[in-house]
Amino acid sequence: MSNAVDTRTLEPVSEPLTPVSRQERKLRTRQALLDTALELLADRPFATLSLREVAKGAGIVPTAFYRHFATMEDLGVALVEEATRTLRGMMRSARTDPDTYQGMISASVATVHQFVRANEDHFRFLTRERYAGGPLAQAIGVELRMFSGDLAIDLARFAPLRSWSTEDLHMLADLIVSVMLTTIVELLEARPGEDAKITGTAEKRLRLVLLGVPHWKTT
Amino acid sequence: MSNAVDTRTLEPVSEPLTPVSRQERKLRTRQALLDTALELLADRPFATLSLREVAKGAGIVPTAFYRHFATMEDLGVALVEEATRTLRGMMRSARTDPDTYQGMISASVATVHQFVRANEDHFRFLTRERYAGGPLAQAIGVELRMFSGDLAIDLARFAPLRSWSTEDLHMLADLIVSVMLTTIVELLEARPGEDAKITGTAEKRLRLVLLGVPHWKTT
DNA sequence: GGTTACAGTGAACGACTGTGCACTCAATAG
DNA sequence: CTATTGAGTGCACAGTCGTTCACTGTAACC
After folding, report:
1. Residue A116: in which H helix or E strand, if any?
2. Which residue's alpha carbon is at the shortest distance from the C1' of C11?
3. Contact yes or no for A47/B48 (Cβ under 8 A)
4. Is A209 exposed, middle or buried (0-12, 13-18, 19+ CB in 10 A)?
5. Interface-testing mutation among B126, B138, B140, B178, with chain A (most A C-beta atoms within 10 A)
6. Per-residue pLDDT tens for A45-75?
7. Which of A2, A41, A150, B96 is the most exposed place for a label (fewest CB within 10 A)?
8. Could you give the angle at the alpha carbon of B68 between the alpha carbons of B64 and B70, nearest 5°?
9. What are the contacts of A180-188 at 24+ separation with CB within 8 A?
10. Residues 36-55 on chain A lying near strand C, CB distance under 7 A
11. Is B43's CB within 8 Å of A133's CB?
12. Whole-angstrom Cα distance, residue A133 to residue B189?
C-alpha cells in the first residue's frame, strides 16, 4: 500500500483510490452474484436460475461460485435478506404518523409507491417468490408475518382501535398488508403513466376498509 | 394374447365395457399428461417441469408428448383452462344470493372453502403461477379480471351499492377478490384443523370491508 | 380385405447442468 | 523475505434436457 522507498517505487498506481483488500474483493464478487441473480429474476422464477449462468453473469467461473455460497438456495436466502431489508426500510419510512386516517393513508401509499419504484427488482423478487413454494417462499412468509405483526402494534395506537382485541388487530393488519401487496404487484405490472391511477385506487381501498373500523364490534 | 380358435371368436373379451375408441384413448393420454403435471406442480413452479418427466409420469415416451402438445407451455395453458373451469364453477355456486350481507358472506366463504378442499391442486396451481411471470401468469391474470368483473356486476344488485360508480364497484370487487385469494392461499398452507379459524378470519375481513360500504361517498 | 392415419417407440444428437479435482498466483501473516 | 491462505481457473465427468428421425402396430376407412 504505502509508497515503499527503495524496492518498488510505484506499486499502487493503476488503481490508486481502490485499496481492494482481499475480503473486500470477495464481498464485491458476492454482491455481483446477488446483482446478476436479481437481474435474471426480472422475468423468470428463481427455481429456473442455474449456478452457471449466475456465475457467468458475475464474471467468474462456475466452480468459483462455491467460494461464496454452498448452493443456489443459499444465494436465494441471501437475496431474501437483501430484499426484506428494503421492505423493512419502507415500513420504517411509513411510520411517520400523521394522526388522521386520511393523512396516514395517502402518506403510506406514497411511501409504498416511492419504494417500489426505487427498488423494483427487490419487490418483484419478493412478490414472485412469495407463492412459489419451497424454502424461499417460506422465508418470505415469515418476514411478511413479522411485517404484519409490527403493523398491528402501530395500529393499536390509534384511538378508535385501542379497544380492539389483538386478534381483530391482526385481522385488520393482514387485510391492510394484502391490499398493499396487491398494490405493489399492480405497480410492477403497470405500463408507464398508470401509477397515479393505481395509487389512487389503493388509497380508496384503504379508505373503505378504515371506514368500517368505527362500526366494528370487536370480540 | 387370447387363445384364438380359428379367426377371432371373442374379440372384445378382455375389456368388454371399455370400447376404447381411438380418439378416446388419445383423450385419456392427454388427461394423464395434465394430471401428472398437476401432481408434480404440488410442490414446485411450472417452469421447472420437464417434458420428459411429465411424459414418464403419464406412461408414454418423451417424443409421444408432441402428439398432444406442441410445447410444455401449451400444456400449461391447457392446465390454466382446466383450473379456471373449477374457478368459474365456484363463482356459479356462490351466486345463490341470500339478500343479507351476513348471509352472503358466510355462504361465499363456505363455498370457497368447499371448492378449495375439493380441488386443492387446481387452486394451488392458480395461486402459485399467478405471480410467477410469463404467459401463464398473464392468462391467469386475465381470468381473474373477468372474475372480478362478474363480481362487480353481481354486487351492483345490492341496494346500498346501486348508486355506486362502476369504478368504485370494481374497486370493491377487486378488494373482495384479493381477500378471497388471501384466504385460498391460507387454506392451502393450513395444517389440518385450522380451517375453521381461517374461514372465520375471512368472514371477519369481509364483514369489516362491507361495514364501510354504507358510509362510502362514491365519486 | 387392403390401405391409410396416427399414437406411441427407441436410438441418437448437441446443449446444458452441478460438481470434483488439481492448479495458479497475489494478498496476507509471521 | 518466506510461507500460507484462498479466490478464481480449467478440465473432466456423468446426468438431464428438448428435439430429430425412422419405425411399428393397430383402429378406422373405403
Report:
1. helix A101-118
2. B63
3. yes
4. buried
5. B178
6. 999 999 999 999 999 999 999 999 999 999 9
7. A2
8. 95
9. A180/A108, A180/A112, A181/A127, A181/A130, A182/B174, A182/B178, A183/A109, A183/A112, A184/A112, A184/A116, A184/A123, A184/A127, A185/A127, A185/B131, A187/A112, A187/A113, A187/A116, A187/A117, A187/A123, A188/A116, A188/A120, A188/A123, A188/A124, A188/A127
10. 50-53
11. yes
12. 10
Nearest CA to B158 among B105, B90, B122?
B105
Distance from CA of A124 to the nearest CA of B (A): 9
pTM: predicted TM-score of the whole model, two decimal places: 0.90
Under 8 Å between Cβ of A75 and A34: yes
pLDDT digits (tens, 9 = 90+) for B31-82: 999 999 999 999 999 999 999 999 999 999 999 999 999 999 999 999 999 9
C-alpha cell, B5: 380358435
Distances (CA, A) of A83 to A122, A176, B132, B158: 5, 20, 17, 43
A to B CB pairs, distance under 8 Å:
98
Q: List CB contacts (< 8 A) between B207 and chain A.
A: 212
List chain B residues with pLDDT less than 50: 1-17
- What cell numbers appear for B32 in the block? 394423464
pLDDT > 70: what percent of chain A?
90
Asked whether strand C has any atom less than 7 Å from the CB of A4, the reply is no
Torsion, CA A176, CA A182, CA A184, CA A190, rounded to 10: -150
Amino acid at A158: F
- Other Cβ atoms within 10 Å of B93 Cβ, number: 15
DSSP state of B192: T
Q: CA–CA distance from B51 to each of A115, B65, B69, B196 (Å)? A: 39, 7, 10, 39
